[in-house]
Amino acid sequence: MSFPQVRTTALEFPATVLALLGLEVPEGLFAPNKELLEKFDPTAVVIIMIDNFGLFEAVVYKPEALIKNMEVLALLDTNDPYALPLIKRLLKGHRPDFHLIQHVKNYGKATQVICREEDMDHCEFNSEYTVQPRDDMATYIEATKHIAKSELLYLHFLDFESLYAQYGHRTPPKTLLEKIVRRTDNWIKILYQQARIGTLFIVAGNHGRHPIPLNYEGKLAEWRKANAPIAIMFQKREE
Fold this sequence. Notes:
The chain is α/β, with parallel strands linked by helices. The protein has one domain (5-235): Alkaline Phosphatase, subunit A. It is 42% helix and 18% strand. The chain is built from eleven helices and eight strands. The chain has an eight-stranded mixed sheet with strand order 1-3-8-7-2-6-4-5, with helices on both faces. α7 (117-123) links the parallel β4 (111-114) and β5 (130-131). The protein is globular. The model has no long low-confidence stretch (mean pLDDT 86).
């Protein structure tokens, strides 16, 4: 695959989202990424977090809707690519007194989070704007209810992580991985169709909750080792 690539950092992410939404960036945050600001001018932002999904999975399993719509492949430089520390960086930058979701809500923007119960404390989400679904299907259904009325929507899919955890030290069957990729990709396609014109999608992947030894060999092993957290970005525009 060959796409416009932008190298950014997890620490730039909060200010970049704020600037894309036209909001003032508080002092002390890392400055927003100028390349991304030049490429997008959204009226709303949807952040979709997928555990154990990255450049490797995008190359090998080729999610059709994501590839078709992708405008930018952002490589997220970070000291810790695993799910919980990366998500915390994306939401808070390096400031413990700042929270992206709460900050956007404080500006009066329609804000919604859809995540599992275990994310509530670690990610410091407030129950007033959070729905806690039981599984990925419920997460998708909740997202369809909020996609057209939220100015900032954050949702978190966990089935990749659950599959890797289920198989432990063994690599899950390729057919199962492909099935989850196709299903999740189709959900994102439908959310894109339901979104308002001007909505920016940021589909972010991480290395999962814990390091996982995988039994890949040759080129696959090299790609997986070099796997980087990514953000696939695209905006719904007038046809």
